[in-house]
Amino acid sequence: MSVIKAENLTFAYPESGENIFDSVSFQIDSDWKLGLIGRNGRGKTTCVDHIMSINRTDIEVVKGNFSSWWENRQRREQMELSQNRGYVGHKAAKMMKRSQAIAGRREQAIEEKKGLLKNVETADDLILRPMTYRSGRLAELRDVSIYYDGKKAVGPVSFEIAQGDRIALDGRNGSGKSSLLKLLTGQQVEHTGECTLGSGLIISYAAQDASSLSGSLAGYAEKNGTDFSLFLMMLRKLGFERSMFEKDIADFSGGQKKKVLLAASLCREAHLYVWDEPLNYIDIYSRMQIEQLITAFSPTLIFVEHDRTFREKIATKTVHLD
To answer: Of 31, 112, 314, 320, which one has the greatest count of Cβ atoms within 10 A?
Structure first.
């Protein structure tokens, strides 16, 4: 039973000279789920917004009636079996035949749905240029407590960052994870205790929040001292179309803005990489690229990331903040 069907769906923003997506066709049936997969900026959220504009009440009624009808039919058959023992063999055989038919239809549906997996994207390997520090210890936090408006949020916490460490900061929201990263990068953070950085230590930082980014990519690169050609190459590897290079960053999607921060960080040679939620809004292809990058280049890294699987795969140490 078809619930939603889209044919040749095309969308473009009024100020844009190109389509976000073009001639998209699909259907969502009542007995399976559809996932939209693609790079950031490919129109996944916009497509879902269009779907949500359809009358949801009608959809829920259809699904509800279908589910209730099937459950009631199963209950009636179970009652018939229990009431007439001699009828069991006949009904069991009938149900087995029906189950086999359903299984056959499902296998056929799976094969048909495989045809929907078109235009699967490939992800080029990212590159990184980590520097080796002159000593084994890069930084140390000793009895550091973070304060918000005069009230202690976390601490005291003590740990050191050694060459080759990949440290994950773990804790509840508001526990000071992002503030500790900012403290390491020299930003003004209300705190007590000591944060000691190695002399001449070079840090590459990717912040958590990219929502306020605006202006041109060229201007952003110049402001941050980033090689523009390398910056554009990194963005291309992260799935940016060349047409995006001339647009205002303010018009980018959340995932694309996050990639701007990450690409700038990747372009910088550094002893220590500090990343605050690197996977925030990031598509699956870029996530795979980031995991492969860290595995291949083994940078010294301290990061915050809520994705437990990523933390367990990447981190060599975990610092828990109470």
So the answer is: 314
